[in-house]
Amino acid sequence: MPSSRILQFVGLLLTFIPVQSLMAQGPPSPSAKPALQVASRVVFLDVTVLDKNGSPVVNGLTQADFTIVQDKNPQQILSFEAPEAHVMEVGSEDSNSGGNAPVTILVLDLLNSSFADFDYIRHEIRKYLAAQPPQLESPAALMVLGNLRLELQQGYTRNRDELLYALDHIPPAQPFKLQIGGLAWLYERTAQSYDALQQIALQNKGVPGRKNIIRVGHGGSGLWTPDFTGDSVVQLKRLVRETVNFLVDARITLFVIYPRLEANPKERTLSQADLSLEGRQLSEMDSYSGATKGDPFESDINFGVFVNETGGKLFYNCNDVGAGIRQAQRMGAEYYTLTYRPPDGPANGKFRRIHVTLRDPNLRAFTKDGYYAQDKSAPADFRRETRTALFDAAQSALPFVGLNVKVSGIVQHPDTGTVDLTLQLEARNIQWHAAANGKSTATLTMAAVSLTGRRDLLASNVVGVILTADTQDPKRLAMVESTAKLTLRVPNKTQSVRVAVETDEGGRLGTVDLDRATIDAAPSMATPVPKLEHRPPMHEGPGTT
User: Fold this and answer.
1) What mean pLDDT do residues 237-258 have?
2) Which terminus, N or C, of the chain has the lesser number of Cβ atoms within 10 Å?
3) What pLDDT digit, counting tens, does each position of 292-348 carry?
4) Which conformational region is residue 182 in: left (phi greater than 0), alpha (psi within -120 to 50 degrees), or beta?
């Protein structure tokens, strides 16, 4: 079954409280660009253009050379960026928050790869990294998808040696879910593979620039859906469709490198038994075997087709992992960015296919193949209703840095088993809106969770916060710091506490973590008695009794 954390957020009380913002003493961050604006939904298409020899085309093309079609209807291009616009901003060393440069996320797939294959994968990636200069051209991060969860080994950095150190300290582990086999574990691994992509998308949601996931290993199981019946197929297809939209919104392209696999995949004959029991051959097939019309996952769930839907590439039988990484990075770094506003259409859940063509028929465009429309007619689904970005960030093992959040105060209440947390929020990446009397407001949602050592949920609380500032000047707003308070129950089995904060517009996420020792070292006091607000009697006017 999919991860149990998606079933745990029930009956949470959501309230909105105003918080008075405090003016910071320090200068604004160079990347802080608050604006008084209303977000309008547009689709970003990062397009890699290849010539007939398969080489990227980076010069000589203008907006007039491109055509965007959605469901056979031409769309107006709102903006255009050439490859030379996607560069590192001066002073932006470890992330792309200050510029438009793409970043690379290396994911080592232990969940779906054998122990021997994973050892080979680590060896090949180490050989690739060792051949790079001490300072990489653009930031890269390193993650491992293991038996239980997706874990961040090294955050965004341009320091090659930091990535090598993190790679060398990945602990060995047997992929027991792959070794046990069977349909139940196949279902679990498939759900976990797509869930990991959603976590990466959430971590990068609202952050500008293109993100390229280079996943080395089997990538994810392919499923022959006739082997599954009832609600399991419905849930998996919904998970895949949600993941497509997550990656589109986060501007993520997926590349998958399959090392040490059998040759001649197109000549291979697959039996239904192979497809159902191994769960891997279907996803190893050519990624362009998917349908070109309609829903690409209507019949089968093919991870290779999924790669194609994101605008990436499947490197099949690529034993030279370094060559595959270099090609993926080149495709992900030399690209054009187009935007358009999708037309209103029926909320029927159908796949909206996007097709980008060029005026020169000898050129080919690689970009996302489409997204799924909202489905208002779908039956109520507990998983979809409770699985929000905020809750996923709260229980994820990944850090989220889209917002700068700090805990500035902790007070324990042993009589009720709770703690009061005082949070400090910087204005960076918060969108402010003009309000009455020359003020500005911003709306955030905060979730705090108590977790076991295995990150199982023990307690939670969710609070909506309205920030206010006594200015509408963008320069002064960039200096605003705000504080907010949140109360959380901390059961005896709690090993850590995480607070996640999300902006209502833009969807940026920030997290902060506390270990049990930090909580136990905080000062204690009795739980304050709630104060009753006294209201004077209403004046009824003349003639009343």
Assistant:
1) 89
2) C
3) 567 888 777 777 788 888 989 888 767 788 899 999 998 999 999 999 999 887 778
4) left
User: What are the structure tokens assigned to 290, written together?
Assistant: 């998917």
Q: How confident is the model at residue 235 (pLDDT cuts 50, 70, 90)?
A: confident
Ramachandran quadrant class, 230 (left: phi over 0; alpha: psi -120 to 50; beta: rest): left
C-alpha 453 chain-centroid distance: 23
Which residue has better confidence, 457 or 495? 495
Q: What is the identity of the amino acid at 299?
A: S
Angle CA 439–442–443, to nearest 5: 140
Structural domains in the chain, CATH included, are 4-38+385-520 (2.60.40.10), 93-334 (3.40.50.410)
Q: Given the DSSP bridges, would you call strands 43-50 and 336-340 parallel, antiparallel or unpaired?
A: antiparallel
Across all residues in the chain, what is the average pLDDT? 77
Residue type at 469 in one-letter notation: A
In the block, tokens 């980008």 appear at: 356
pTM for the complete prediction? 0.70
Handedness of CA 141, 215, 317, 367 (dihedral sign): negative
Read off the pLDDT band of 290 (50, 70, 90).
very low
